[in-house]
Amino acid sequence: MKKKDGHVHTPFCPHGTTDELEAYVEQAIKENFDSLTFTEHAPLPLGFKDPTPSENSAMKLVDIDSYISEIQSLKDKYRNHITIHTGLEVDYIKEFEKETTQFLNKYGKFLDDSILSVHFLKLDEQYFCMDYDEKTFGLMIDVAGSLQNLHSMYYRELIHSINSDLGNFKPRRIGHITLVNKFQKIYPVTFPTESTILNVLQAIKEQKLEIDFNVAGLRKEYCGETYPGEWIAKMAKKQKIPLIYGSDAHSARDVGKNYSNYDQLTSGS
According to the model, what pLDDT value does residue 153 have? Predict the structure, then answer.
């Protein structure tokens, strides 16, 4: 089986490091990866205001051409060493499907492999970035009425993203499907979630999509597990839904981190 890191960020990320693109590639080669997909946060849809304090959730639209061009240069330089894919992590945002589709129609022809993620939820007529920090997450719980309500809203939005029509260039991989668990050590889940997760997996299977097996949660202080967790990943594997390893690296040193978790889960029958 070829070794792939399908979720890697870049210096174009305003909330990441300034590590050069080449440093990410060199780390992937050092870790014996055959393939690497750069999936920078796509520019947010026109008309959408980033709710984070620094408004730094995604790259700027003015940078997209340089991003594509620089990755193409790396493809040429490293073509005999590693396969490099141009991709994006695209946000699914309620009420901005049209703008997202227009963006993908314009830039999708340059993309090889991308991810569709839910980071933003609209609660009581206001958008929140649900994984920004634990205080924001706590506020979202208050607005939603309970942690269980917030989970229900998140997974409902996730299913909307899975079933959404974003045109011919819609990403085929769904990002970190249990991101709502990022702060679970502070806000533990004490209610059943299995039926909800089964609905998510069923939707992914019906749409013939992939799952981002994202190990970033292992690096997060209040999470401590992959997105999705082991039992969900095993269920996805049983249903023959492709699981693609993603380091979600925002620095070169994290490329390939915790790959063993993915390898142990997916190897064998």
Answer: 97
Whole-angstrom distance, CA of residue 139 vs CA of residue 42: 26
pLDDT in tens, 133-156: 999 999 999 999 999 999 999 999
| Beta carbons within 8 Å of 217's beta carbon, 6+ residues apart | 176, 178, 181, 182, 223, 224, 225, 226, 227
Nearest to 122 by CA among 90, 148, 157: 157
| Domain count across the chain | 1
pLDDT reading at 268 higher than 80: no
Domain, as residue range, for 152: 4-266
Structure tokens at 260: 């063993």
Q: At 18, which CATH number?
A: 3.20.20.140
Q: Are 165 and 92 contacting, i.e. CB atoms less than 8 angstroms apart?
A: no
Tens digits of per-residue pLDDT, 12-56?
A: 999 999 999 999 999 999 999 999 999 999 999 999 999 999 999
Strand order in the sheet with 210-214: 4-8, 35-41, 83-91, 115-117, 173-174, 210-214, 243-246
> Please, are residues 78 and 24 in contact by the beta-carbon 8 Å criterion?
no
Say if residues 89 and 114 touch (Cβ distance below 8 Å).
yes
The total number of residues written for the chain in this structure? 269
